[in-house]
């Protein structure tokens, strides 16, 4: 992609929260390939360093930082370190997630732990980085990673006869993420900060493949007949961060193979 292309992220300073999981690594690869200078932050900086090694070897501009998104001082410190090192923040991708709930009857403490990261941590991170972008002349772009499950109810049929299932906190915080995105798109729009959300459908995990029965049923629910592969999500995120999306804000973009439109 030519550096002058409006779809390119060359010259963009982007921070990504959450980058060591299956989707997180795919997003790092996509944003690095699009030319971003990318700071990837999570609690485990050593794990990030390992995840960034392939991209760095390919010449991508990737940096690792530690952050605890449940701690206000930690999030502010990350913001301040990035600005001190790079002078500005052009984009932020919120991909951090915690899944302490294992089933519908999980202890209340698991729900509360989930909310600390997935609700409060999200709110804190979004506001902190939006505020930083709002004082910049060029503003910035924020892309939050939700899920189509923030748009629909669960479908127990998909999981029948498997060890798989759903948990209520995931539906709750992904639905909240979509609407908080709309809220802050409105609040920060006049200050040139765009806030959008990408809602992936189910992602096939080659490291821990889903049950065959689930894969067959899930495929029937989509228009494309299959689950997504993790690298297929990154293009939508890179687009929303780029100048090609300068007039797009407050949008929830499903990347779900047509699941929610069928």
Written overview of the protein:
The protein is of the alpha/beta class. The protein has a single domain (13-156, 165-206, 230-246), classed as Rossmann fold (3-Layer(aba) Sandwich), CATH 3.40.50. It has 7 helices and 7 strands, in the order βαβαβαβαβαβααβ. The protein has a 7-stranded parallel sheet, with helices on both faces. The radius of gyration is 18 Å and the shape is globular. The model has no long low-confidence stretch (mean pLDDT 96).
Q: Based on helices, strands and strand pairing, what is the structural class?
A: alpha/beta
CATH class: Alpha Beta
Taking the sheet with the most strands, its summary is:
7 strands, parallel
Assembly annotation = single chain
- Tell me the strand percentage band: 5-15%
- Stated plainly, the CATH topology is called Rossmann fold
Mean pLDDT: 96
Order of strands in the sheet with most strands: 3-2-1-4-5-6-7
Low-confidence stretches: none
Could you give the count of β-strands? 7
Rounded radius of gyration (Å): 18 Å
**Through-space gap between termini:** 33 Å
Instruction: Quickly give the CATH architecture.
Output: 3-Layer(aba) Sandwich
Shape: globular
Estimate the helix proportion, in percent. 40-55%
Order of helices and strands: EHEHEHEHEHEHHE
**Number of spatially distinct domains:** 1
CATH level-4 homologous superfamily: NAD(P)-binding Rossmann-like Domain
Number of helices: 7
SSE topology:
Layout: E1 13-17, H1 22-33, E2 37-42, H2 45-57, E3 61-66, H3 72-86, E4 91-94, H4 108-134, E5 140-145, H5 168-188, E6 193-200, H6 212-221, H7 234-241, E7 252-255
Parallel strand pairs: 1-2, 1-4, 2-3, 4-5, 5-6, 6-7
Helix pairs in contact: 1-7, 3-4, 4-5
């Amino acid at each position: 992609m030519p550096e002058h292309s409006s779809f390119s992220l060359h010259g963009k300073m982007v921070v990504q929260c959450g980058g060591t999981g299956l989707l997180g690594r795919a997003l790092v690869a996509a944003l690095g390939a699009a030319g971003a200078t990318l700071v990837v932050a999570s609690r485990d900086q050593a794990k990030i360093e390992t995840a960034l090694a392939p991209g760095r070897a390919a010449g991508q501009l990737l940096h690792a930082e530690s952050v605890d998104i449940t701690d206000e001082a930690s999030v502010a410190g990350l913001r301040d370190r990035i600005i001190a090192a790079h002078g500005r923040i052009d984009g932020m991708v919120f991909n951090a997630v915690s899944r302490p709930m294992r089933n519908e009857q999980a202890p209340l403490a698991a729900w509360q732990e989930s909310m600390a990261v997935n609700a409060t941590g999200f709110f804190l991170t979004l506001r902190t980085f939006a505020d930083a972008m709002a004082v910049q002349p060029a503003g910035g772009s924020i892309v939050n990673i939700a899920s189509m499950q923030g748009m629909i109810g669960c479908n127990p049929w998909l999981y029948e006869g498997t060890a798989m299932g759903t948990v209520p906190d995931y539906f709750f915080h992904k639905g909240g993420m979509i609407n908080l995105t709309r809220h802050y798109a409105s609040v920060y729009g006049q200050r040139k900060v765009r806030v959008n959300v990408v809602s992936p459908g189910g992602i096939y995990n080659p490291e821990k493949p889903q049950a065959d029965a689930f894969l067959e049923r899930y495929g029937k629910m989509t228009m494309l007949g299959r689950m997504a592969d993790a690298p297929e999500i990154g293009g939508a995120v890179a687009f929303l961060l780029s100048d090609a999306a300068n007039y797009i804000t407050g949008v929830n973009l499903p990347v779900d193979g047509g699941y929610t439109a069928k």
